[in-house]
Amino acid sequence: MSSFKEAETEETVTCLHLTFYHPCQEEKTMFRCLNFGKREQVRADEAAKFGRDSSVCRYNLLDTRVSRIQFSLQLFRRLHTLEYCFEIKNLSKKTKLTVNQTELGYLNKVDLPWKCIICFGDYQVLAEIQEGESMDYFETHLHLAEAPILQERCLPSLQPIPENGISPSFFPSQGKSPTEIDENEL
């Protein structure tokens, strides 16, 4: 019988949580090939590819507006650190991909932030990285959002309030343009 001290340490696994949304997901079946709610292992030396072509892509989106290979996610380790990260590469010649408003053209790639929103066409994907230590593989855990991840918000136009706290709307400008005044002149 081996003792507790001799038992191997359990290795944690890096997990990429991806939450998908499409405005027509109720009527169409674009997500029917994705295994939501189940963790899947991906070898660390493989890229996780997303797209329409099931012979090339591990994660299939059944939509003619999605490219054969839309994008890939690749695990890597930063030089001189133990930190594991992902890079995302746009593999679509026709559709731009955005990662937190950074637009990627064909073959452009960026490091995936630990939490970000990936958009292409009408698709929205929330990506969240759960750190781990395994060098052999990582896991993906796919989820389906019930509401849009990224929503257009109409915020009222905010006017700056001067340091004295009095809003300039109380004083008519009388057609004068703003002028700078040296604080010593007050």
CATH class reads: Mainly Beta
> Could you list the spans in which at least 5 consecutive residues all have pLDDT below 50?
152-159, 167-175
Give the percentage of residues in beta strands: 25-35%
Measure the end-to-end span.
85 Å
The tally of helices reads 0
CATH architecture: Sandwich
- As a whole number of angstroms, the C-alpha radius of gyration is 24 Å
Shape: globular
SSE order, one letter for each helix or strand: EEEEEEEEEEEE
> What does the largest sheet look like?
7 strands, mixed
Q: Give the overall average pLDDT.
A: 83
Helix/sheet category: mainly beta
The total of beta strands comes to 12
Region (Disordered): 166-186
GO cellular component, one term: cytoplasm
Main location: cytoplasm
Domain FHA: 49-121
Write the layout of secondary structure elements.
Layout lengths: L14 E7 L17 E5 L3 E5 L7 E2 L10 E7 L6 E7 L6 E3 L2 E3 L4 E3 L3 E6 L2 E8 L6 E8 L42
Parallel strand pairs: 1-12, 3-4
Antiparallel strand pairs: 1-11, 2-12, 3-5, 5-6, 6-9, 7-8, 7-10, 10-11
From the structure above, extract its key features.
186 residues, mainly beta, Tumour Suppressor Smad4, 5-stranded mixed beta sheet, 0% helix, innate immunity, SMAD_FHA_dom_sf, cytoplasm
Overview of this structure, please?
By secondary structure, this protein is mainly beta. The chain has no helices and 12 strands. The chain has a single domain, classed as Tumour Suppressor Smad4, CATH 2.60.200.20. The strands form 2 sheets. A 7-stranded mixed β-sheet has the order 2-12-1-11-10-7-8, with no helix packed on it. It has a 5-stranded mixed β-sheet with strand order 4-3-5-6-9, with no helix packed on it. Strand 10 (115-120) and strand 11 form a beta hairpin. The termini are far apart. Residues 49-121 form the FHA domain.
